């Protein structure tokens, strides 16, 4: 008995499973709830009764991968359609129906719709939102479905809750959207007018247009369009009562917002006239002024006629005179009457317009096509200023101080060139001081061996001279000439013109200068001076390589073969390198004194070759220690600890790049070129650097290196 029940239970379970399988053939499940969808065709793919086929084709290929949801793909996108509907009016004889225009908005993100009607003034209808935004079902027999974007097209009708809307057009974005999804658009339909509204407008115009229409004085449009726009003219008035003072200058301003004019007077200094705010207060300016005075109430905008007087209760009856009988018509100046050269009548005063500003010119150029704005010269040319005769220098004080005493009663201190001081003053390691080695040009055997340093300060063009102190020479060295500006020799002392002083361009290697009777020959300069002059070659022609090279080419253009032979004889080993002395002697012989020593050195520095072995190691170390000392760098113990950590083999050697990276990580205050040069001095043939010796040499606390003088050797060319 129990087995039979089990078998029956199994059969029942199988039947239920078959039923579910059968229902799955005709239903789809959503959240485990069976749903019937109309888009699923019947057996063999044939459409079921009442089922329509949706258009799924498009001009664009299908995307690869999963497509985004509609609320992301169509976010902030709205389809807008122009439509209208007819509304019956059964309670009025004047109209049987109304045509009401509206807009239909469709939101593809959630298939919702909204219908709005533009508000028409004094329509008497409740306008605005006719159908709020929500999903709207299709009309029967498809009320179980909602409107989608495929149900819309131009020149078609849709039914929303029993009301038929005729779609006549849509905007450009909607057209492009519908064509992209494969809908072929119909041509736009015409927009019908409401017959009752058209008839009512015609009757309203006929009733509001009397036989004699009233004048309207509407100035709001002109004010809103031209507010803040003012035409400006420079004018002149020849006052007959003031012939001695000349014409009186005026400024006329025309306001485009209300066609008014005001005039101000420009009073010169010490004119003797009272200062008044306006020569003419702002108002409309009549053309035929002055005129006989009018009685009060004569000039009005309207004319009123008393018809019946005051019959009862002191009430009068008035009507407006539309014919303007006896009205006074006056003409006022407009912007078309104002132009350069025109004479306007300002209450009996003839004023000539002489010039105008740029805005006024642009206004007349656009509105009236005027292009000639030649001003009228009304001012007499001022007399030439008398030439100031400066008396000659009397010898007291400086020339600048004496010149200021002649320019004003109150003597002022001469102004310094602070711009030059700020631009060329010492900044960091840039001293802006040009130093030259010099010697005296003299026949005295004692003075021939004296050596001097001439310093030129670019901040104020001053010069200071110092002398080397040599032992057992009998001459005390030190300051030879106090820092000051030095005049060039050969100038007259007592003269009116300012004297010429030595400039930076007057000092160069090979130049002869005279400082207060002492003749100096500049024989050399420091490296900073050469670099500064070469960087600012536009200010120093003696250091301009391009100018010097072109000058040399012009001298040696016809002697090219001879020069090649000379160089080949000088260089028998064909190394393409010759000594500087040989190069200098050749340039002197070719130029025949046409090149200064500084120009020859500029060529040699440009084409020169220096071996790294020529650079003094002690001099480099002294410069490096000086920079480390100025920046208070004392982290030598931390450096040696980092080097020992990177030295895995504990041999005391590390590669060049590793040492350079470690120094960069510690932000060693040394220039890159100086650091690289020092590292190359301490590396061996295998590019390994002895970091212990290098750090010992840089340690300015324990191993201080003093710089010493060394004879300069000219570079090879």
Classify the helix fraction into a percent range.
25-40%
Quick one: CATH class of the largest domain?
Mainly Beta
How many domain modules?
Answer: 5
Number of helices: 19
Radius of gyration over all CA atoms, rounded: 52 Å
Report the end-to-end length measured between terminal Cα atoms: 125 Å
Largest sheet properties? 6 strands, antiparallel
Average residue pLDDT: 81
Portion in strands? 15-25%
- CATH second-level architecture of the largest domain: Roll
Trace the largest sheet across and list its strands: 6-5-4-3-8-7
Overall structural class, as computed from helix and strand content, comes to alpha+beta
What are the low-pLDDT stretches, counting only 5+ consecutive residues below 50?
1-26, 707-717
How many DSSP-defined strands?
A: 24
Shape descriptor reads: flat
Fill in the CATH topology of the largest domain: PH-domain like
* Quaternary structure of the protein: single chain
Task: Describe it.
The chain has 5 domains: 70-202, PH-domain like (Roll), CATH 2.30.29; 219-293 and 304-368, PH-domain like (Roll); 418-541, PH-domain like (Roll), CATH 2.30.29.170; 545-607, no CATH class; 613-698, EF-hand (Recoverin, domain 1). It contains 19 helices and 24 strands. It has a 6-stranded antiparallel beta sheet with strand order 6-5-4-3-8-7. A hairpin with a 2-residue loop joins strand 1 (28-30) and strand 2 (33-35). Residues 1-26 and 707-717 have low confidence and may be disordered. One of its GO terms (cellular component) is microtubule. Residues 75-182, 227-368, 430-537 form the DM10 domain. Microtubule inner protein (MIP) part of the dynein-decorated doublet microtubules (DMTs) in cilia axoneme, which is required for motile cilia beating.
């Amino acid at each position: 008995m129990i087995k039979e029940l089990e078998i029956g239970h199994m059969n029942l379970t199988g039947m239920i499973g078959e039923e579910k399988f059968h229902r799955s053939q005709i239903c789809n499940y959503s959240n485990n709830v069976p749903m019937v969808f109309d888009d699923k065709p019947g057996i063999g793919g044939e459409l079921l009764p009442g089922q329509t086929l949706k258009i799924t084709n498009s001009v664009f290929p299908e995307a690869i991968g999963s497509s985004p949801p509609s609320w992301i793909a169509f976010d902030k996108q709205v389809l807008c359609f122009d439509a209208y509907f007819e509304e019956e009016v059964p309670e009025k004889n004047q109209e049987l129906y109304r045509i009401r225009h509206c807009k239909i908005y469709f939101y593809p993100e959630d298939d919702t719709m909204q219908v709005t009607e533009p508000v028409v003034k004094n329509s008497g209808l409740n306008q605005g939102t006719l159908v709020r935004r929500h999903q709207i079902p299709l009309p029967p027999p498809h009320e179980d479905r909602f409107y989608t974007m495929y149900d819309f097209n131009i020149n078609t009708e849709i039914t929303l809750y029993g009301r038929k809307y005729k779609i006549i057009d849509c905007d450009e974005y909607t057209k492009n959207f519908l064509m992209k999804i494969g809908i072929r658009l119909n041509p736009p339909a015409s927009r019908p007018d409401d017959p009752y509204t058209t008839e009512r407008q015609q009757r309203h115009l006929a009733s509001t247009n009397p036989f004699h229409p009233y004048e309207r004085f509407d100035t709001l449009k002109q004010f809103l369009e031209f507010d803040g726009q003012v035409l400006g003219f420079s004018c002149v008035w020849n006052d007959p009562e003031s012939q001695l003072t000349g014409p009186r200058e005026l400024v006329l301003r025309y306001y485009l917002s209300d066609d008014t004019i005001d005039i101000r007077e420009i009073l010169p200094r010490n004119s003797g006239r009272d200062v008044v705010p306006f020569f003419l207060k702002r108002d409309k300016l009549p053309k035929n002024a002055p005129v006989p005075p009018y009685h009060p109430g004569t000039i009005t905008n309207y004319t009123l006629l008393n018809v019946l007087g005051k019959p009862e209760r002191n009430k009068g009856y008035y009507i407006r005179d539309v014919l303007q009988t006896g009205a006074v018509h006056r003409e006022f100046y407009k912007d078309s009457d104002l132009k350069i050269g025109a004479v306007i009548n300002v209450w009996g005063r003839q004023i000539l317009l002489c010039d105008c500003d740029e805005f006024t010119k642009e206004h007349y150029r656009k509105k009236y096509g005027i292009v000639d704005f030649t001003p009228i010269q009304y001012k007499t040319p001022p007399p030439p200023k008398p030439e100031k005769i400066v008396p000659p220098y009397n010898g007291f004080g400086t020339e600048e101080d004496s010149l200021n005493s002649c320019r004003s009663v109150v003597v002022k201190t001469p102004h310094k060139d602070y711009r030059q001081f700020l631009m060329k003053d010492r900044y960091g390691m840039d001293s802006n001081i040009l130093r030259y080695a010099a010697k005296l040009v003299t026949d005295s055997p004692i003075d021939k061996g004296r050596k001097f340093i001439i310093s030129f300060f670019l901040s104020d063009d001053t010069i200071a001279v110092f002398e080397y102190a040599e032992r057992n020479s009998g001459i005390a060295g030190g300051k030879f000439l106090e820092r000051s500006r030095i005049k060039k020799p050969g100038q007259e002392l007592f003269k009116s013109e300012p004297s010429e002083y030595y400039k930076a361009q007057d000092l160069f290697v090979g130049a002869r200068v005279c400082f207060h009777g002492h003749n100096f020959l500049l024989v050399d300069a420091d490296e900073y001076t050469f670099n500064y002059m070469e960087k600012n070659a536009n200010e120093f022609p003696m250091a301009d390589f391009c100018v010097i090279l072109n000058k040399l080419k012009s001298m040696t253009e016809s002697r090219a073969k001879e020069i090649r032979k000379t160089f080949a004889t000088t260089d028998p080993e064909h190394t393409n390198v010759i000594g500087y002395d040989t190069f200098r002697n050749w340039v002197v012989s070719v130029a025949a004194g046409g090149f200064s020593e500084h120009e020859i050195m500029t060529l040699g520095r440009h084409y020169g070759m220096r071996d790294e072995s020529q650079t003094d190691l002690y001099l480099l170390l002294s410069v490096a220690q000086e920079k480390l000392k100025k920046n208070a760098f004392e982290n030598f113990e931390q450096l040696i600890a980092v080097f020992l950590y990177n030295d895995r083999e504990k041999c005391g050697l590390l590669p060049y790049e590793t040492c350079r990276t470690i120094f960069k990580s510690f932000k060693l205050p040394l220039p890159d070129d100086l650091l690289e040069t020092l590292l190359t001095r301490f590396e061996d043939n295998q590019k390994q650097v002895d970091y212990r010796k290098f750090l010992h040499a840089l340690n300015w606390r324990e191993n201080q290196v003093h710089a010493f003088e060394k004879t300069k050797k000219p570079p090879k060319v």
